[in-house]
Amino acid sequence: MAPPPPASMPLGQRLMHLAQTLQFGWFVGHLTLLFCSFRYSLSYITFNSYSRWARFSYRTAFIAAAATYGIVVYKAFRARSRAGKGPQPGALSLLADENVQYLLMALVWLFGRQIPLALLPFTVYSVFHVATYTRANLIPTLQPPQQAPAGAASPGGRPATKPSALADTIGRFVKEYYDASMTLVAGLEIFLWYRVLFSAIIFTKGSWILLVIYTVFVRARYSQSSFVQGAVGQGIARVDALVANQSTPPAARQAWETVKRLGRQATDSTDLNKYVGAQRPGGKKAQ
Fold first, then answer.
1. How far is CA 110 from CA 38, 60, 153, 196, in A?
2. Top-confidence residue, 249 or 153
3. Which residue of 192, 207, 215, 224 sits 20 to 30 Å from the alpha carbon of 185, by its own alpha carbon?
4. What is the pLDDT of residue 40?
5. Does position 136 have pLDDT exceeding 90, yes or no?
6. How far is CA 178 from the centre of its chain?
7. CA angle 181, 259, 277 (to 5 degrees)
8. Nearest-angstrom CA–CA distance, 152 and 145
9. To the nearest 5 percent, what fractions of the chain are helix, strand and coil?
10. Considering only CA atoms, which of 123, 111, 114, 112 is closest in space to residue 48?
């Protein structure tokens, strides 16, 4: 993330300098997503989720999501081109990028029918992105850090600065709730898969195509995210505990073991890392 403008510049110039960056457009996109999600949630809880304003809020939220992830993908492409690191990655390598995956899913939800649950993972991500940008860029631009009392110095020998109390509060919030929120996102994405599966079972129009697309997305998230892996592992452990109960019929136990075996086979046969190179799963959130 680019540093904030120099504190020596007047406030108006600092704000102008900040607003001219792609990163600011990324921030505005996430902020727009939050506002639209909030507006849509009001319509949803009042049973007006298909009103004109609700539809507008829903679609605009995913337009904002597509714009933010599109900016990140573009910046990565531009950085690679400027660095001269050889040819651009192929199609499979691009699809293995989590920001490309979220960009494509934002477009799928944008042009598909409304599924309110689909907004929630993007909303959680946006909360943290807006908080991080506000702490690292917006607050230092509006209120440049003040120098600490005389005699204080940073470890590098430079004059120490007094951090903003609001920035410190935001930093603590991000640090404290990051892991729990990423676990929540993983759970929401898995629960959404079951929501899409239910639509396919009752033959909702276009639901089978959506199920295939979203299954590919969830499979990619499982490969890349330790949080998704943890959520899947917890779900399997809970079912294992239920099946292990003595009152469970043997046929149900055998069916569950078959499901697990087929799931492992499907996971092994759809591992993109075999084709694009090994990539260790991590907890990094999409940008």
1. 17, 8, 51, 15
2. 249
3. 207
4. 95
5. no
6. 12
7. 60
8. 14
9. 70, 5, 25
10. 114
Give CA–CA dist 34/41, Å, rounded.
10
- Give the C-alpha separation, 204 to 199, whole Å: 5
Count Cα atoms within 13 angstroms, Cβ side, for 48: 11
Q: Is the pLDDT of residue 148 over 70?
A: no
SS3 of residue 225 by DSSP: strand
Helix 165-201 with 207-224: angle, nearest 10 deg: 140
Give 38-46 contacts, CB < 8 A, sequence gap 24+. Answer: 40/116, 40/119, 44/116
Write out the two tokens for 126: 């946006």
Single-letter amino acid code for the residue at 282: G
CA dihedral 132, 63, 180, 243 (to 10 degrees): -170
CA atoms of 63 and 211, how far apart (whole Å): 21
pLDDT of the residue at 155: 55
> What is the reported pTM?
0.83
DSSP assignment letter at 161: E
- Element (H or E) spanning 146, and its range? strand 146-147
